[in-house]
């Protein structure tokens, strides 16, 4: 029995380096329950953990903003999942700003794009757009703007999708690269709750985009309202494409295959 235990221990030591080597990078996901977003959490966690196993990266999934008190440099990207940055305290915000300036990367999903005006202007600029009122959840047609961007690789040119199609403005004059638009002819952009007024954005209505901010990359998707969306293969492909780009900088447009590799712009241990 002792010999068997020793053999197992030896095997564990033998295989440990290969196991660690299989992990390409680490991603931190902050997902806090809110008034309108809580039922998605166990589903999103399970789906993201499966994506991490499938694509060989490490995932730290937490509802505690105290995770930002630690060393963020070990993460290739930080995801705000339906959780706006205003949930961080002043010290945590400062640490995240320093992380981005040193080459860290961010992924902003749905509700995380909404933050109170003036609460954290730096974060508003990082998102790249400011979300105002939005119409009720409806079925519409999402169209691909940038076929060379990884968050579109698993999607059709015209994608029937049901979501809250946020209306956004650009008060900070931030240049972003649209990834997906929504066709306002496919739903009613004025349909909203009593006492509120919603207007469409017209032909150019981005629902996902990316840009460079400070020293890193930022991917934003405003899609992802309902819990069941985090089980949908096409939505998860869209989300994984954003993770892939944020952590690597790779797109199909780059001549060398890499716009800016992990060693050039991307915080964290890989």
From TrEMBL:
<feature type="signal peptide">
    <location>
        <begin position="1"/>
        <end position="21"/>
    </location>
</feature>
<keyword id="KW-0732">Signal</keyword>
<dbReference type="Pfam" id="PF06283">
    <property type="entry name" value="ThuA"/>
</dbReference>
<dbReference type="InterPro" id="IPR029010">
    <property type="entry name" value="ThuA-like"/>
</dbReference>
<protein>
    <submittedName>
        <fullName>ThuA domain-containing protein</fullName>
    </submittedName>
</protein>
<dbReference type="InterPro" id="IPR029062">
    <property type="entry name" value="Class_I_gatase-like"/>
</dbReference>
<feature type="domain" description="ThuA-like">
    <location>
        <begin position="26"/>
        <end position="246"/>
    </location>
</feature>
């Amino acid at each position: 029995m002792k010999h068997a235990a020793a053999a197992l221990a030896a095997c564990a030591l033998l295989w440990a380096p290969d196991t660690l080597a299989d992990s390409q990078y680490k991603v931190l996901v902050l997902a806090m329950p809110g008034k309108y977003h809580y039922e998605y959490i166990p589903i999103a966690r399970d789906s993201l953990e499966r994506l991490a196993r499938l694509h060989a990266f490490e995932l730290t999934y937490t509802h505690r903003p105290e995770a930002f008190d630690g060393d963020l440099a070990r993460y290739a990207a930080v995801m705000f999942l339906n959780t706006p940055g205003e949930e961080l305290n002043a010290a945590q915000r400062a640490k995240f700003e320093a992380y981005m300036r040193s080459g860290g990367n961010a992924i902003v999903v749905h509700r995380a794009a909404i933050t109170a005006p003036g609460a954290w202007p730096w974060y508003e600029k990082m998102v790249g757009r400011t979300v105002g009122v939005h119409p009720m959840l409806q079925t519409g047609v999402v169209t691909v703007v940038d076929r060379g961007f990884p968050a579109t690789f698993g999607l059709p040119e015209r994608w029937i999708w049901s979501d809250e199609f946020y209306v956004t403005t650009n008060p900070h004059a931030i240049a972003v690269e649209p990834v997906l638009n929504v066709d306002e002819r496919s739903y009613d952009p004025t349909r909203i709750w009593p006492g509120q007024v919603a207007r469409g954005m017209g032909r150019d209505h981005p629902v996902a985009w990316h840009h460079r901010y400070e020293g890193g990359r930022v991917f934003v998707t405003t899609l992802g309202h309902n819990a069941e969306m985090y089980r949908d293969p096409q939505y998860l492909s869209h989300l994984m494409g954003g993770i892939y780009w944020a952590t690597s900088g790779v797109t199909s447009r780059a001549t060398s295959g890499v716009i800016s590799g992990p060693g050039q712009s991307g915080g964290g241990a890989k």
